[in-house]
Structure formats: structure tokens, C-alpha cells
């Protein structure tokens, strides 16, 4: 007996030692082998990149996972109750693991031999989602339990629940309850109702199988189960429960709702941000605030869309996109499917003609509804015989469409209008002339249709809109706006192949001796060519580089005077900021600042800015670094004065309809009317509009003042609404003198035909002098022969280039 007692005593000691070793081993394992739990309190969940306007409105979001982190304090109590009632009823009582639940799962395993889901607490699910995989093994389960114990010890229950509700996958790229609320209901989390909270709370069990979009019946059963559990636990009363389960399941997929439509800006910024921060931008919750003004961007979108559609309709109706055959009731569902799979482009909906009368058509829309297009929405559609000729005016609807035609429609007041996707493209950009900030940018008709950004990427010939840089170069050499140059025929030989270039004015007329102001106002080609020849091509090419153009973009030929450079619209707009701000070169930029998920500023733009002394009314930071001056304030003033007269008396006279006295600008049209431009400005905005085809050989059959100017006017009308006139301040060193308009010489004070002209003080003409006074200006008005250093333009140069 004593021996047995001795054995039991020693066995007890042995077992105690073994148990102690096991406990110490588990403790050691938990403390040193389990991952550091402290990092959970500051963990960075994968949050997509958000791009916003300068006033904080969402432009775009990029990232594989849609997530909107929500702090515990802002998670609605009813959602928490729904989750706990279904997932972990004893969450606030257990130490991270629910022993009764684990025992039940173990008993089922022993009695049935099957591994079933169960026994996992919310804390264990957090442990699994952050540190483990989803494979069902005993080793992983043990590790999950140990990590859960450590998490519960280190973190508060509220923090653990916050991690869980922001981490879980809930289907349709939604990670976390914040994103799920947006995707399924198009609301923020605090806007949901009880039945909607219950639907979200039921998703973690099987996000795909219980998805309310893919499987609404299963989703409703799961939702009602969650509501039943809430009632059984006591979170809701019977009346609330019965009302909630009778509520229809109203979930549907909601696209990300952006607040500002600027996809070309978003892509430009995304590319720049990726270069700055790498792929982390898509997961680390970066917020990029752009320079885009949401109000101006909205105006720009509408101006480009309206301008392109108007141009397209002026050139006739090209016919339907397809024909689906004879309509009957049996075909309607099939037709709806075809229409649903046809993308909406630029707001133009696809629709199928199902009925017509003499003066209207009835069309089927993709959503299954019918719409009537009345005669006022159809009568514009003269058939396009070719690009330059329209067929006879339609008299009835049958002259335009046939039954089964797939057409495009657009809203028009309270009715609908026939439309078509334009073949031409257009773009618009607006810059702040004082620091180069891009305030609005539209790179094409529809980003989904074509993501090519024509403003930043397309290199096109600017036509006569390039002439101001040649004239500015002449002013820099001592020419004046009163300098007279002969508008007469020119024949230039190309020494490389003995071909001849005979440039002409658009009117096919010659006007004789012409002052430079008048030549620029009316965009006279031959005066521009002679002027370039006098100041020399190498000098003009070098001078144009001050405005931001690269030497490889500038052909060293006389055709440069007609705008045969290859430049991007953004470069052209930036070049005109020099005139608008008084002579300073600013650089366009789109990113104002970058912030991390905690709101800390990682990057702040510090653009070089034009001097405040040029325009004291222009707000500017006193600490902002000064942009380089590239032309004198006097030169910029004279150019602005001449370009002001382009609008008041010249090729852009239609812009007088804006009834402002502070606008300056220049039209541009290239050979065969391939490109149409207008660049105009005041001290608030420099705005450029462009229209053309992506295939440069195709003609618009319209000039810049017909195709591009209306878009510019539409934009500037609304952009400058309620803003006072702000002409550029006249700098010192500029005087106004009466001149003879025929000779450009100073006239007598009592001369009845005399006109005032501005001059830089060093170049004021006297009674007997010729103008300009500089040696360069005294050169012969006959073009010099082509030389190896400055070869003449070839016969490929536009005969009607730079027209207005």
C-alpha cells in the first residue's frame, strides 16, 4: 500500500512537472513565436487610391479592393448587434475563444468524423485573416486559438471588432462594411436601415453564395435568419422583427459614385503618382488633391461635348450603327440585351427603332422603356453623302431611320433627340496663368471610348495660333506693332530638290504694305512669313523655346510662321500664359498635394509663380518662388493688346458676344483644315480648345473660328460669369502715340485719320523716322534666299497654313 502511495505521489509530481513544462512551453510559444500583436493597433489595411479635386470632390478611385475604413465609434450599434447575434453572441464575455463553442465543434468531429465550421469567435477570425490561411488543419486551428488569446489580451474588444468589420470580404470587391454599404445600397453606413444591416451581417458566412445580387433568395433567407437571432437574443422586439422580415430585398450593384467627371485628369495623375510612390499608391490609402476646380471641370465637360456634337450634326447624319430586323414582342428581351451590352458613349444612349409615324419615332431603350423622338429632334439629320456634301433635307422620319435601326439618342429638354457618336475629337484645357495650375482638362469626347489624352499627348500643328510667338520675337528685336511689311507674293526655292513653295493668304488676295498689328489681327500669312525671314529663322526658333517648345518641335523653315511646328495643346496653353501673366514662364501641373491615410501631407506642390508686381490684384503667396521672366512686361502687354484686337476686330470677332473687354486670343487652322484651334485668355484663365481627327489627314472642313472658338466661348461665358473685367495692367515703359495707319509713322495731333498705337519707349517713332528703329527692322522687306542655316520650306508646307 505504501508502495502504491509512493508511486502515485511520484506520478503526481511527474505529471505536475510535465503540465508545468507544457504550460510554460505554450506561454513561451505565445509570447515569442506568435506574431507581434501590437502592430494590429496601427495596421494599414489595403485602402484604394483616391484622386480628388482641389475642393475635395472625388474624381476617381484606383485599387483592387474597395474599402472605406470606419472607426468603431462610427459603426452603427444595430450593425454591431446583428453581427454579434449571428457570429459571436458571447463576444464581450469570452477571452478571445469560446470554450463551449469549441467543445461543441469537437464533439461533432468525434461523433461524425467531419470537420464543420463552428467554434470560431470574431477574435479567432481576426487572427486567421491577418496571420493565417483558411486551410482546415489541427495545427492551424491551434495556432489560431493561441493568436486569438494573445490578441484579446493586447487589444480592446472595440478595437478587435473594428478590425474585423473593416477587414472582412463581403463580395463584389467590397472589403469591410463601409464599402459594402456603398456597393449594395449606394449609401454611407449610417444611412442604412435594420434590414440592410442584417443583410450585411449575414454575408461573412459565404460572401459569394449569399450575395444579394447573385443569389437574392439565399441572401434573403440569411438576412431573415440574422433578424431572427437578433430577436431571440433580445436586441429587437417582435414588432420590429416582423416589420424587417417583410421588407423587400432592395440591394443592387452601385458603381463608384464620383463627384467630378475628369477621367483624363485622373489617368494623368495616376501615372504621375505611380512614378512618385510606386505600386503602394493602390493599397496604402493615399489621397491626391489635384489642382482641378470642380465647377470649371463641369463647364469644360459640357463645352467640349456640346461643341463636338454641334460640329458633328453640321456635317450630316451617317446612318444607324446596326439594324436588328423587324420588331415584334418576341424580340424585345433579346433587343434589350443587345442594347445593354452596347456601351453608352459620351452620354449618348443606344436605342432601337420599334415604331414610327410621319414626324416621330418610338425607340426601345436598354432599360426596357420606350421613348419618343419628335420631329424637332430628328429634322437636323440630313444624310451625309460625303465629308463635304449633305443630301436633301428630310421630310419624314422614314427619310432618316428604318424599323430595327440601332441609333443613339440624347436628352433634349423634356424630350429626346437623335444623335451619333462624333468621329472628330476635341479637347480643352484651362490654366491659372500665374502658377500654371491645371484648373480643367478634357482630353477627348469620352474616356471609355478612347483614353488617348489629346491635350497632353497629341502633337499637332498649331497653325496661325503659333504666330504670336513669331511676333513677340520681332518685338524683342525692336519691331513695333506699327512696323509696315509688304503683303505681296512670295516664291521660295527649296535647294534640296529645286521645288517651289508659293504660300498664299486664305482670301487669295494681297494687301500691300500692312502694319504688324493688322497683320496679326487678320492672320495675314505672307506678312508673317516676311517677318520671320527678317528676324531670321534661327533667332525665331531660339526665341520660341523660351515659351516651352523643344527645338525638335520647331522646323527651321519659313513655314514655321504658318504654324507647322508639332506641339501639344498643353504646350500651347502654357506658352500663352507668358502673355497673360506679364512675361513669366510657368509650368503646368495637376497635383497640388498628396496625403496618407492619416491625413499627413507627404507632398506639397511649390510651383514657380509670376511676380505679384505685374498684377497686384492677383493673390499669391509672398513665399512662392518666382518664375523666370522670358519676355519683358512691355512685350507681353503689346502682344496682349494685339491679341485683344483679334477678338475685337479680327478672326475671332464672334467672341465679342461675351461682352467683355479683357479677352485676348488667337485662332488657328492648319493646311486643309485638319486642325482647328483657339487659345484665349484674361488675367484669370488661359483656355485652349482644339478640334480635329485622330487621323491627321482628314479635314474638318471648318476653320478655327467655326470649330474651336464656339467651345472656348461657351466655356469662358460660364467660367467668367459674375467676374469683373480685368485687363492686363499697362506696365511702365509703354507709351501711346498717334500714328498714320498707312505708314506707321508718327502723325500730327490734328490728323483726322490718325490712330493711337502703343510703343516701348526705346522704339517710339519720330516725325521723320522709319519704324521700326532697330537695325533688324530696317532690313529689306524682300525675303532673303534660302540658306543652309535657314532652309526654305518645302512644297509640303501648307499653302493655306495658319488660316483664320
Largest sheet: 6 strands, antiparallel
> Structural class, judged by helices and strands?
alpha+beta
Gross morphology is elongated
Quick check: average pLDDT? Answer: 86
How large is the share of residues in beta strands?
Answer: 5-15%
Specify the number of helices: 21
Strand count: 24
How far from one another are the termini?
122 Å
pLDDT under 50 segments (min length 5)? 615-621, 768-804
Helix content: 25-40%
Based on CA atoms alone, the radius of gyration comes out at 36 Å
Annotate the secondary structure layout:
Layout: H1 2-33, E1 49-52, E2 58-62, H2 77-87, H3 99-112, H4 122-131, H5 138-154, H6 157-167, H7 177-185, H8 194-202, H9 216-233, H10 238-245, H11 263-277, E3 287-290, H12 294-314, E4 322-323, H13 332-340, E5 349-356, E6 361-365, E7 370-373, E8 384-386, E9 389-390, E10 405-412, E11 415-419, E12 425-431, E13 438-442, H14 467-476, E14 484-487, E15 492-494, E16 499-501, E17 512-515, H15 516-521, H16 525-535, H17 537-544, H18 569-580, E18 591-595, E19 601-604, H19 633-649, E20 664-669, E21 675-681, E22 686-692, H20 704-707, H21 709-719, E23 734-739, E24 755-760
Parallel strand pairs: 1-3
Antiparallel strand pairs: 1-2, 3-18, 4-10, 5-6, 5-10, 6-7, 8-9, 10-11, 12-13, 12-22, 14-17, 15-16, 18-19, 20-21, 21-22, 23-24
Helix pairs in contact: 2-8, 2-9, 4-5, 4-6, 8-9, 9-10, 12-21, 14-16, 14-17, 14-19
Amino acid at each position: 500500500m505504501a508502495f502504491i502511495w509512493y508511486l502515485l505521489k511520484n506520478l503526481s509530481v511527474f505529471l505536475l512537472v510535465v503540465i508545468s513544462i507544457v504550460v510554460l512551453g505554450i506561454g513561451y510559444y505565445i509570447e515569442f513565436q506568435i506574431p507581434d500583436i501590437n502592430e494590429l493597433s496601427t495596421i494599414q489595411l489595403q485602402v484604394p487610391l483616391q484622386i480628388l479635386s482641389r475642393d475635395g470632390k472625388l474624381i476617381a478611385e484606383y485599387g483592387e479592393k474597395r474599402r472605406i475604413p470606419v472607426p468603431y465609434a462610427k459603426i452603427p450599434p444595430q450593425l454591431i448587434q446583428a453581427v454579434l447575434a449571428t457570429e459571436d453572441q458571447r463576444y464581450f464575455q469570452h477571452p478571445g475563444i469560446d470554450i463551449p463553442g469549441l467543445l461543441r465543434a469537437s464533439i461533432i468531429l468525434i461523433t461524425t468524423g467531419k470537420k464543420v465550421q463552428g467554434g470560431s469567435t470574431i477574435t479567432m477570425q481576426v487572427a486567421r485573416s491577418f496571420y493565417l490561411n483558411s486551410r482546415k488543419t489541427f495545427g492551424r486551428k491551434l495556432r489560431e486559438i493561441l493568436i486569438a488569446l494573445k490578441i484579446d489580451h493586447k487589444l480592446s474588444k472595440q478595437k478587435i471588432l473594428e478590425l474585423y468589420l473593416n477587414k472582412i470580404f463581403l463580395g463584389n470587391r467590397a472589403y469591410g462594411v463601409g464599402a459594402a454599404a456603398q456597393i449594395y445600397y449606394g449609401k454611407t453606413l449610417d444611412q442604412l436601415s435594420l434590414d440592410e444591416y442584417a443583410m450585411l451581417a449575414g454575408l461573412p458566412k459565404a460572401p459569394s453564395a449569399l450575395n444579394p445580387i447573385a443569389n437574392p433568395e439565399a441572401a434573403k433567407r440569411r438576412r431573415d435568419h440574422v433578424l431572427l437571432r437578433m430577436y431571440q437574443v433580445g436586441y429587437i422586439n417582435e414588432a420590429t422583427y416582423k416589420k424587417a422580415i417583410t421588407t423587400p430585398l432592395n440591394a443592387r450593384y452601385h458603381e463608384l459614385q464620383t463627384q467630378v467627371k475628369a477621367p483624363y485628369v485622373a489617368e494623368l495623375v495616376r501615372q504621375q503618382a505611380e512614378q512618385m510612390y510606386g505600386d503602394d499608391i493602390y493599397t496604402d490609402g493615399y489621397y491626391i488633391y489635384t489642382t482641378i476646380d470642380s465647377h470649371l471641370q463641369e463647364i469644360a465637360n459640357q463645352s467640349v461635348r456640346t461643341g463636338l456634337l454641334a460640329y458633328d450634326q453640321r456635317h450630316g447624319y451617317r446612318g444607324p450603327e446596326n439594324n436588328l430586323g423587324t420588331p415584334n414582342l418576341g424580340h424585345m428581351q433579346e433587343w434589350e440585351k443587345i442594347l445593354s451590352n452596347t456601351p453608352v458613349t459620351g452620354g449618348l444612349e443606344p436605342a432601337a427603332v420599334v415604331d414610327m409615324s410621319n414626324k416621330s419615332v418610338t425607340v426601345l431603350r436598354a432599360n426596357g422603356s420606350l421613348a419618343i423622338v419628335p420631329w424637332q429632334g430628328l429634322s437636323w439629320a440630313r444624310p451625309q453623302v460625303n465629308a463635304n456634301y449633305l443630301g436633301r433635307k428630310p421630310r419624314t422620319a422614314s427619310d432618316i431611320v428604318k424599323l430595327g435601326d440601332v441609333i443613339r439618342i440624347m436628352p433634349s429638354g423634356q424630350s429626346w433627340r437623335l444623335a451619333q457618336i462624333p468621329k472628330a475629337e476635341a479637347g480643352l484645357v484651362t490654366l491659372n496663368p500665374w502658377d500654371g495650375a491645371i484648373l480643367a482638362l478634357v482630353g477627348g469626347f469620352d474616356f471609355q471610348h478612347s483614353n488617348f489624352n489629346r491635350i497632353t499627348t497629341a502633337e499637332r500643328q498649331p497653325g496661325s495660333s503659333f504666330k504670336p510667338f513669331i511676333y513677340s520675337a520681332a518685338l524683342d528685336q525692336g519691331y513695333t506693332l506699327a512696323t509696315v511689311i509688304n503683303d505681296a507674293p512670295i516664291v521660295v526655292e527649296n535647294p534640296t530638290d529645286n521645288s517651289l513653295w508659293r504660300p498664299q493668304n486664305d482670301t487669295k488676295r494681297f494687301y500691300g504694305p500692312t502694319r504688324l498689328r493688322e497683320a496679326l489681327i487678320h492672320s495675314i500669312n505672307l506678312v508673317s512669313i516676311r517677318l520671320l525671314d527678317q528676324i531670321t529663322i534661327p533667332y525665331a526658333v531660339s526665341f520660341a523655346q523660351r515659351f516651352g517648345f523643344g527645338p525638335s518641335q520647331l522646323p527651321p523653315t519659313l513655314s514655321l510662321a504658318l504654324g507647322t511646328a508639332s506641339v501639344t495643346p498643353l504646350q500651347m496653353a502654357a506658352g500663352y500664359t507668358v502673355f497673360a501673366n506679364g512675361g513669366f514662364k510657368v509650368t503646368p501641373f495637376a497635383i497640388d498635394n498628396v496625403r496618407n491615410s492619416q491625413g499627413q501631407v507627404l507632398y506639397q506642390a511649390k510651383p514657380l509663380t509670376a511676380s505679384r508686381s505685374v498684377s497686384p490684384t492677383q493673390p499669391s503667396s509672398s513665399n512662392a518662388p518666382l518664375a523666370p521672366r522670358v519676355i519683358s512686361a512691355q512685350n507681353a502687354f503689346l502682344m496682349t493688346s494685339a491679341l485683344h484686337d483679334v477678338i475685337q476686330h479680327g478672326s475671332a470677332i464672334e467672341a465679342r458676344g461675351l461682352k467683355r473687354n479683357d479677352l485676348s486670343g488667337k485662332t488657328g487652322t492648319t493646311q486643309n483644315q485638319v486642325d482647328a484651334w483657339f487659345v484665349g485668355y484674361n488675367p484669370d484663365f488661359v483656355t485652349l480648345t482644339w478640334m480635329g481627327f485622330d487621323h491627321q489627314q482628314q479635314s474638318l472642313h471648318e476653320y478655327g473660328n467655326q470649330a474651336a472658338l464656339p467651345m472656348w466661348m461657351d466655356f469662358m461665358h460660364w467660367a467668367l460669369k459674375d467676374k469683373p473685367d480685368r485687363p492686363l495692367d499697362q506696365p511702365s515703359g509703354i507709351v501711346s502715340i498717334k500714328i498714320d495707319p498707312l505708314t506707321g509713322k508718327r502723325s500730327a495731333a490734328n490728323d483726322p485719320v490718325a490712330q493711337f498705337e502703343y510703343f516701348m519707349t526705346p522704339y517710339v517713332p519720330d516725325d521723320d523716322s522709319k519704324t521700326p528703329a532697330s537695325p533688324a527692322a530696317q532690313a529689306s522687306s524682300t525675303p532673303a534666299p534660302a540658306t543652309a542655316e535657314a532652309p526654305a520650306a518645302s512644297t509640303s508646307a501648307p499653302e493655306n497654313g495658319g488660316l483664320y
